[in-house]
Amino acid sequence: RLFQYVAEAKLFAQPTFSRLLALLDNYERMTGSSETLTAEEEHEEEEFLAAVFGTPVMATLTSFFLAKGLYPSAAAFRDDVKAMWFGMYSRSSGAALDSSGFEHVFHGEIKNGKVSGCHSWVQLYELEKSGQLNYLSYSYDGPWPSFPDVLALQFRWNSYLKSVGSIVLGSSPEFDLALYTLCFKARPDQLCHVSLGGEAARIQTYSWTSSFYGDGQRFVASAYPVSP
Question: Where's the EndoU domain (predicted)?
Answer without folding.
Answer: 1-228
